[in-house]
């Protein structure tokens, strides 16, 4: 239990003791559900999102624009963007980001299949939606260099100060990018 993310030894002990107090059938139901999840959930062959079929629900949806691809680090990012109900394209889940310090190189990610889609002219726009960290920016740049010879639009999600945030609490990188990527005031009125 303590091997699960966010679960320390004390919490793991509490969980185990709780399971031992519960009727045996409750613990067996949990074990069966975990086994079913592990055996029946796979990865979409197109975007690498989780799915219980060959194609995930997003890639199989004919109402979505398959020529606009949002590049994300992991499945949680897909869920976060989907919760906004603002994106109607497809995704490409990299499975991480380039991080030499952690031993993660481009070959450890699904960059190859993304570049292949671009080569096959199946993409009009790539939206880079990785975190604005050194590793995220490095991964974005690496992918950009791989696809820059092809005639597609490459964009990145807007970065800056969140609505309701106080400037004094913003980090310097975020505040600096907000200043550099400022928009006309009239445009800010339209998006409010």
Layout of SSEs?
Elements: H1 9-21, H2 24-40, E1 42-43, E2 50-51, H3 57-60, E3 65-72, H4 75-82, E4 89-93, H5 111-119, E5 125-128, H6 134-147, E6 153-156, H7 172-180, H8 185-190
Parallel strand pairs: 3-4, 3-5, 5-6
Antiparallel strand pairs: 1-2
The biggest beta sheet, please?
4 strands, parallel
Helix content: 40-55%
**What structural category arises from helix and sheet content?**
alpha/beta
What is the average per-residue confidence, as pLDDT, rounded to a whole number? 89
**CATH hierarchy class name of the largest domain:** Alpha Beta
Order of helices and strands: HHEEHEHEHEHEHH
Beta content:
5-15%
Low-pLDDT ranges: none
| Gap from first CA to last CA | 45 Å
The overall number of domains is: 2
Shape: globular
CATH topology (level 3) name of the largest domain: Dna Topoisomerase Vi A Subunit, Chain: A, domain 2
| Oligomeric organization of the protein chains | single chain
Describe the strand arrangement of the main beta sheet, using strand numbers. Answer: 4-3-5-6
Rg, rounded, reads 21 Å
CATH architecture of the largest domain: 3-Layer(aba) Sandwich
User: Number of helix segments?
Assistant: 8
**Strand runs, count:** 6
List descriptors.
alpha/beta, Dna Topoisomerase Vi A Subunit, Chain: A, domain 2, two-stranded antiparallel ribbon, 13% strand, 2 domains, four-stranded parallel sheet, 8 helices, 192 residues, 6 strands
């Amino acid at each position: 239990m303590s091997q699960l993310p966010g679960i320390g030894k004390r919490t793991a002990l509490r969980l185990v003791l709780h399971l031992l107090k519960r009727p045996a059938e409750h613990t067996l139901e949990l074990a069966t559900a975990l086994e079913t999840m592990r055996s029946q959930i796979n990865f979409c062959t197109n975007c690498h999102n989780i799915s219980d079929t060959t194609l995930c629900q997003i890639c199989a949806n004919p109402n979505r624009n398959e020529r606009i691809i949002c590049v994300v680090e992991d499945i949680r990012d897909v869920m976060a963007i989907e919760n906004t109900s603002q994106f109607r394209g497809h995704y490409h889940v990299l499975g991480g980001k380039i991080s030499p310090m952690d031993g993660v190189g481009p070959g450890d990610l699904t960059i190859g299949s993304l570049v292949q889609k671009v080569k096959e002219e199946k993409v009009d726009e790539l939206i880079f939606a990785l975190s604005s960290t050194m590793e995220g920016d490095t991964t974005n740049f690496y992918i950009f260099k791989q696809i820059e010879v092809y005639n597609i639009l490459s964009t990145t999600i807007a970065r800056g100060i969140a609505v309701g945030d106080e400037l004094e609490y913003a980090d310097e990188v975020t505040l600096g990018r907000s200043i550099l990527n400022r928009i006309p005031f009239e445009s800010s009125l339209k998006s409010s």
